[in-house]
Amino acid sequence: MTNYFDEVDHRRLLAEYPIGAAFLDGPARLSRDELHALQERRFLQVVARGWEVPFYARRWRAAGLEPGDIRALEDVRKIPAFSKADLMQSVAEHPPFGDFHGLDLTAAGRLGAVLHTTSGTTGTPQPIWFGAFDREVQNALLARAYRLQGLADTDVVHSVYGFGMVNGGHSIRETVLHFTKALLVPGGTSSAMGKCSTVSRM
User: How many Cβ atoms from other residues are within 10 Å of residue 39's Cβ?
Assistant: First the structure.
């Protein structure tokens, strides 16, 4: 039986998505062709996974696509766009969480999942799902941005995002705690209207 941290595999994650000097000495130095090849590899992995998810497979077939039709990054233009309304229709037709996330929540051996929602300011909150590896990639990329902006391990990060069902505050907390040594000072359950983070030197 695995847990969230086993599924993340941080060594693999940081090899694929390095932070700080490792990013500047690695992916940031890729040539245009090398960067395109990396983007295309990741894109085709996402497409292959998309065919396994009912929501995407249904929409892609309705647009005349079949597995194997998307062969290169340039083929992204063939993939039909979708909106939040389409996701909410999926939720309505396949309650309670829709069929766009690719999870079989009844499977005993399924991978771990993290559930958040949108704020609901434009209607019913939309469920948002993360797998462990995907979630930590999100956090690592934010940590990369923070490092590029000068975040140091001796800094204090005061995050005033809320900590309800919306992802924002949780993502900031996980980013700082998992990928830096900066001191995180959360602002509690403040309103989502005042979303920001500030950094100070100790």
Answer: 12
pTM exceeding 0.90 = no
Which parts of 94-154 fold into alpha helices (H)? Answer: 132-148
Counting beta carbons within 10 angstroms of the beta carbon of residue 138, is it exposed (0 to 12), middle (13 to 18) or buried (19 or more)? middle
Residues 6+ positions from 14 with CB-CB distance below 8 Å = 22, 140
Name the one residue in this structure whose structure tokens are 């309103």: 191
Share of the chain above pLDDT 70, in %: 92
CB 79 within 8 A of CB 123: no
Terminal-to-terminal C-alpha distance of the chain: 42
d(C-alpha 115, C-alpha 112), whole Å: 10
Residue 4, pLDDT above cutoff 90: no
What is the rounded CA–CA span in Å between residue 93 and residue 87?
10
| Cβ partners under 8 Å of residue 11, min gap 6 | none
Residue 143 and residue 157 in contact, taking contact as beta carbons nearer than 8 Å: no
* CA separation for the pair 150, 152 (Å, rounded): 6
pLDDT in tens, 150-201: 999 999 999 988 888 888 889 999 999 999 999 999 886 644 444 556 666 6
pLDDT tens-digit readout, 122-145: 888 999 999 999 999 999 999 999
Residues 190, 161: contact at Cβ < 8 Å? yes
Q: Do strands 113-117 and 183-186 pair parallel, antiparallel, or not at all (unpaired)?
A: unpaired
